[in-house]
Amino acid sequence: MTEINEHTDRQTPDFMAWLQSALFNRKAVEYFHPLLTALNPLSGPELKAQVLGVYSETNSAKRLRLKPRDNWNGFLPGQYISITLEVNGKNIQRHYSICSELALWENEGLIDIAVQQVPNGEMSNWIAHHIKSNAVIRISQATGEFTSKENATPKLFIAGGSGITAIFSMLINRDSDDPAPTVIYTARGEGNHLFKNQLTHLNDT
Predict the structure, then answer these.
(1) Pick the residue with more confidence: 15 or 132?
(2) Whose CA is closest to 73, among 169, 161, 139?
């Protein structure tokens, strides 16, 4: 009996070490990851955002309303984020400018991006035809140095097509005390001007 007890005493630390390893090693984490993701799609260390809405901005452009997870740091008007999606079995990444008001982020934790569909564009065409509300996508922190600077110099913006998105963000977040900017914007076809109604309203105010 004494020998059995001594053997058990010697084996107990090894068994506990094995049990701890089995429960908390990387394979166990990977095993439970799908369950955690199902319970909370924004869980995990990666930067992610949930798609709350998909809206037609023009005949060939979609506006996505996103809710980034808590570890996203916000943005400056004019900045962009990188989006990573799995399309046709491979990960692809594209950059899209944020085109919403700072107040939407500060008050509700939401942002908008606009995606212009382009011929043979893997991501833009996939988004146009497949992305749905409640989808979860991988994003980056906002980045980019093309931002509005606080000074009294009147600004001239020139844009074509979807290039208006970063400029639009700066226009709608402009301080009322700043000099009114001049905007020259062109697009192919009458129905392809992004933010047409909002730009017209800004021009009238």
Answers:
(1) 132
(2) 139
pLDDT at 20 over 70: no
Distance CA 135, CA 125 (A): 16
**How many C-beta atoms surround the C-beta of residue 116 within 10 A?**
22
* pLDDT tens column, 102-133: 999 999 999 999 999 998 899 999 999 999 99
Alpha-carbon distance of 200 to 86, in angstroms, equals 37
For 144-154, letters b (16+ CB in 10 Å) and e give eeeebeeeeee
Q: Is the pLDDT of residue 186 over 80?
A: yes
Say if pTM beats, i.e. exceeds, 0.85. Answer: no
Helix (H) or strand (E) holding 87: strand 80-87
Q: Which residues make beta-bridge pairs with 66?
A: 51, 111
Q: Is 28 left (phi over 0), alpha (psi -120 to 50) or beta?
A: alpha
- C-alpha distance from residue 86 to each of 83, 130, 149, 164, 198 (Å): 10, 12, 36, 27, 33
